[in-house]
Amino acid sequence: VLAARLLEAGETGASAEMLARLIQGSLLPAVAWQESHGDIDAARVATEVVPARTASALCGTKQCVAFGCDADGYLVSARSAAGVGIYWVARGSSGLTYRSMRRADGSEHGTLVLDRVPVRAEHCVLAPGTGDKVLAGAIDEAIIVSSAELLGLAERALEITLEFLRARVQFGAAIGSFQALQHRCVDLFIHKELGVSALTAALSEWDRADCVRRSVLASRVKARCADAALDICRKSIQMHGAMGFTDDCDIGLYLKRGLVLAAWLGNAQLHRRRYARLALADAASAPGTQGRAA
Asked: With a cut of 50, which residues of the chain have pLDDT below it?
């Protein structure tokens, strides 16, 4: 989502060509924009474009670059005197270093270090002054997509747990017949349905919403879906008993993926704070509609 949106907004022939290759599956770009863990502000960029005689150079460090190990290149946000732009940096470029790490679910991300990496004018995908705005919109879309995955993950984890409770027999009865576990499952089902309602409401409004409203919707959905997914996965492991902690039981895979997705692009706590701040600004900018953000 991030790479496609940035390339789609690009105004050069190179951007259109890379977008076509991305759609065909012959190009795998990684987006390098985050510079500190837990920060999703696209405008907070310390990576610099340093002017030089023949070509400018990029200097800085990017964190949490998803799937950068296998990428053909990187879409890097960097600041110049004119503002934040997006630049294409091919894999193997001079001065480029990538350090790979594994996350809880086994997926890969890493740190990208740019030490005077040369970039020419044709490598500029989005002109300085426009890159952060386009990137911010793409981040909100990615937040919605990751929230949808969290919701699907939570729904399947709950289904697996209900199947287990029907099959597991203890004290001569299926443990799903125990009232304490039934009450817990109902609570988890309600939690999941609240996430469904938040996502459905956001998608129904998305196309007609402005950029501020989209950020409000994205944060509301991510906070709700992240909380729901983590709560469902953790309590599902508890209801599986000791076997829930083993690799033989698939429910652990859902928890590991949920931990990664819940933290990626901001955790629930960050998005609740962001929602409160943006919702107030959104209401203040629209007289007569102060209640719509609630």
From this structure: 290-291, 293-294
Its pTM stands at 0.90
The rounded distance, in Å, linking the Cα atoms of 34 and 2 is 12
Q: Residue 108, class by beta-carbon neighbours within 10 Å (0-12 exposed, 13-18 middle, 19+ buried)?
A: middle
Crossing angle of helices 211-240 and 131-167, in 10° steps, is: 20
Number of independent structural domains in the chain: 2
Q: Supply the angle between the helices 13-24 and 2-9 in degrees, to the nearest 10.
A: 150
Within the chain, residue ranges assigned H as helices are: 2-9, 13-24, 131-167, 179-206, 211-240, 251-263, 268-284
Q: Is residue 289 part of a domain?
A: no
Contact 87, 56 (CB under 8 A): no
Q: Is 103 exposed, middle or buried (0-12, 13-18, 19+ CB in 10 A)?
A: middle
Of the three residues 85, 104, 127, the one that is the final residue of a domain is: 127
**Which tokens in the block code for residue 220?**
């509301």
What pLDDT sits at residue 13? Answer: 84
Taking the C-alpha atoms of residue 124 and residue 89, their distance in angstroms, rounded to an integer, is: 9
Other CB atoms within 10 A of residue 277 CB: 13
